[in-house]
TrEMBL record:
Listed Gene3D superfamilies: 3.30.420.40, Actin, Chain A, domain 2, Actin, Chain A, domain 4
SUPFAM superfamilies named among the record's database cross-references: Actin-like ATPase domain
Role noted for this protein: Actins are highly conserved proteins that are involved in various types of cell motility and are ubiquitously expressed in all eukaryotic cells.
Listed Pfam families: Actin
UniProt name for this protein: Actin-related protein 6
Keywords, comma-separated and alphabetical: Cytoplasm, Cytoskeleton, Nucleus
Main location, first listed in the record: cytoplasm
GO cellular component, one term: nucleus
Keyword match Nucleus: yes
Domain of life: Eukaryota
Localization in the cell: Cytoplasm, Cytoskeleton; Nucleus
InterPro entries reported for this sequence: Actin, ATPase_NBD
Organism in which the protein naturally occurs: Brachionus plicatilis (Marine rotifer)
Entry's family note: Belongs to the actin family. ARP6 subfamily.
Length: 394
C-alpha cells in the first residue's frame, strides 16, 4: 500500500510518497498568460516563456479552500506526475486550522468518491510539524509559528495534541508583503501592479527581516558606499533574460547597463517584512508575530509556559527570510520575564517541514493506523467517522 502526503498550502502544494527523501513543490493555482490564450495548471507554469502580467486563479481565498474545480485540476496533475495507483494509496493531506465543515466534507468526497483512494488522514500543517519536532527532540510541549501565504498561525501543542485556547491567527502573510511591495515600487519607480510573479521573486531574493530596525533606517539614509543596504534588481525582458536577478552590493550603482531595466530597493528591503511584526503599519488592527506568541503562551496555564517558550518552532514561507529567527527571539525575549528560558528554532526546510512530519507519521505504523479512515469505513459511516477521528487531532 502506497502512503502519499500532500501539504496543501494556499500558494504551493508539497507532495510525494512517504518513501521519498523530500517533497516536490507544485504551484497551487492556475495562471493565464497576458494574452489569456494559454492557461497553466500548477507546475505547467515552468513552460511559460513570458511571466509578465500573469493572471492568477487560486483555489484558496484568505487561507480557505473555496474553489474545488481549480484544486481538482492541480491534484490531478500531482497524481498524474506521481504515477501511483490511487486505489492502492492512503493519503495524508493538510488543511487549515479551524477549517469549515463543508470544506472538509468536500475534501473527503474528492478523496474517496472521485479519486477512489484507499484511506485518508486529514490534519493541519502545524500539527505535523509539531509531531516531527516532539518525536525528534523527545519533548512534550512546543509552540509552532506557521507564517505562510495568507496568514500566520500560532499553535501550542502538548504530546501532539493542539491546545485550542492558545491558538492565535494573524491575517498577515506572504501575499500581503508582495502586494505592498508592488504598491511601493509602483508609487516610487515603475508601474508593476500587474507583475505579481516578478515582484514576488524580488521580495524573495532581496528582502530580509531587520534585527535592528532603527539602525538599518539610519544606514538606508546614507549615500554612496556607506549605504550597505541599497541593491539593484535587473528585471527580465522575456526575450534575452527570462528571469530577473539581484546585483551584488558593489554592482548596484543605480545606473542600468545597456538595455537593462532595474528596480532599486533601499529601506523597502527590510520595511516590507516588518509588516509581519507590525501589521498596523498598513492599517491592519492585528498583533505582530512576536506579540501574538506571548499572548498565546500567557493565555495558558503558568505551569506549561516555560516549556512552550523553550520550544518555539518556526515554519512556512516567511520563515525563510534572513533574520526572521533572530528577530522573533529578540522581540519575545524583551516581552517575557527573565525567569523563562527561550529557544526559537527554524526547520531546515521551512516549506517542507509539515510534509516531513507527515512522512514521519507514515513511518509509525501504530499511530498511522489509529488515525487512518479507510474507504470501506467511509462508505459505511460517511463524514461522521472522519469528523470523529480528525477533530481529535485538529
Amino acid at each position: 500500500m502506497t502512503k502519499f502526503i500532500i501539504d496543501n498550502g494556499a500558494y504551493s502544494a508539497k507532495w510525494g510518497c512517504s518513501t521519498d527523501e523530500s517533497p516536490k513543490l507544485t504551484p497551487n493555482y492556475l495562471t493565464k498568460s497576458k494574452n489569456a490564450r494559454e492557461t497553466y495548471v500548477g507546475s505547467e507554469l515552468d513552460e511559460c516563456k513570458d511571466f509578465s502580467g500573469l493572471f492568477y486563479q487560486l483555489p484558496f481565498q484568505k487561507g480557505m479552500l473555496v474553489n474545488w474545480d481549480l484544486e481538482r485540476q492541480v491534484w490531478n496533475q500531482i497524481f498524474k506526475k506521481s504515477a501511483i495507483d490511487l486505489a492502492q494509496t492512503q493519503l495524508i493531506v493538510t488543511e487549515p486550522i479551524f477549517n469549515f465543515s463543508h470544506t472538509q466534507e468536500c475534501l473527503e468526497e474528492l478523496v474517496f468518491e472521485e479519486l477512489g483512494l484507499d484511506g485518508l488522514i486529514r490534519i493541519n500543517a502545524p500539527n505535523l510539524t509539531a509531531y516531527k519536532y516532539l518525536k525528534n527532540n523527545s519533548k512534550d510541549f512546543c509552540l509552532v509559528v506557521d507564517s505562510g501565504y495568507s496568514f500566520t498561525h500560532i499553535a501550542p501543542f502538548y504530546r501532539g495534541n493542539i491546545i485550542l485556547e492558545g491558538i492565535r491567527r494573524i491575517n498577515m502573510g506572504g501575499k500581503h508583503l508582495t502586494n505592498y511591495l508592488k504598491e511601493i515600487i509602483s508609487y516610487r519607480q515603475l508601474m508593476v501592479m500587474d507583475e505579481t510573479y516578478v515582484i514576488n521573486q524580488v521580495k524573495e531574493e532581496l528582502c530580509y527581516v531587520s534585527t535592528d530596525f532603527e539602525l538599518d533606517m539610519k544606514i538606508a539614509k546614507l549615500k554612496g558606499k556607506e549605504n550597505r543596504i541599497t541593491r539593484d534588481y535587473v528585471l527580465p525582458d522575456f526575450a534575452n533574460l527570462c528571469k530577473g536577478f539581484a546585483k551584488s552590493q558593489q554592482e548596484s550603482t543605480g545606473i542600468p547597463l545597456d538595455s537593462e531595466q532595474i528596480i532599486r530597493l533601499n529601506n523597502e528591503r527590510f520595511s516590507i517584512p516588518e509588516l509581519l511584526f507590525h501589521p498596523s503599519d498598513i492599517g491592519l488592527n492585528e498583533m505582530g508575530i512576536s506579540e501574538a506568541i506571548v499572548h498565546s503562551v500567557e493565555s495558558l496555564s503558568e505551569e506549561i509556559r516555560s516549556d512552550l517558550y523553550e520550544n518555539i518552532v518556526l515554519m512556512g514561507g516567511n520563515a525563510k527570510f534572513s533574520g526572521f529567527n533572530q528577530r522573533v527571539f529578540n522581540d519575545v525575549r524583551c516581552l517575557i520575564p527573565s525567569k523563562y528560558k527561550l529557544n526559537v528554532s527554524t526547520e531546515n526546510d521551512c516549506l517542507g517541514c509539515a510534509w516531513q512530519g507527515g512522512k514521519k507519521l507514515a513511518e509509525n505504523e501504530t499511530e498511522f493506523n489509529e488515525l487512518i479512515v479507510s474507504r470501506k469505513t467511509y462508505e459505511e459511516f460517511g463524514h461522521s467517522i472522519c469528523k470523529k477521528k480528525f477533530d481529535i487531532i485538529n
